[in-house]
Amino acid sequence: MLKRVILSISSIFVFIVGCYVYGIVLNLRTDTLPERMAELHLTKVNNPSIVIDKKKYTLTLFSDSIMVKSYRAVFGKGNQEKQAFDDKTTPSGEYEICGIDSAHLYHRFFRLNYPNIDDLRSALRMGIISKKDYETMSLQTYYSDTLTQSSFRWRTIGIHGIGQLNFIFKNLPFVFNWTDGSIAISNEEIDELYGVIQKGTKVTIY
Fold first, then answer.
1. Domain count of the chain?
2. pLDDT in tens, 136-151
């Protein structure tokens, strides 16, 4: 009996180690951003934009209309279409980066202008916010890049790294959505983006 237990534990351990080794090998085979730019004969990323595909778990960087590099991305724990500002689901729509935090809990954080006017209209239609809230928040989006959280409670959405658990999560050979609605890539990958994106960079989420 004890022998069977030891064999079972050993098998599980070998499987977990094998998964991580496989994940590490996959990451080692991925080109860096400078390598991809060299292949495309690009000296810089011009007019950078980002397209995020939630079904394919990808974040893709573009230079003008040229696809430069695609990253594996994970999203919010909620897997339905976004129904509320704080439901931990990654939203879909057209956004832009309105703030950059280079010393964040998750390494770096590129804040998106969420909720934007389209999100507010949708929230009004679904009865999530009142007409008064809609008018107040719409006015703020008109005069400012982002809303002040004092006007209504919602979860800040952005693109960020993994933070202290980077080595564990980046080497998972399978997808595991764990964020509160933001888009996460590895620390190394967010560092690559940090060198080319800026405030105002367009971000499309499908």
1. 1
2. 888 888 777 666 655 5
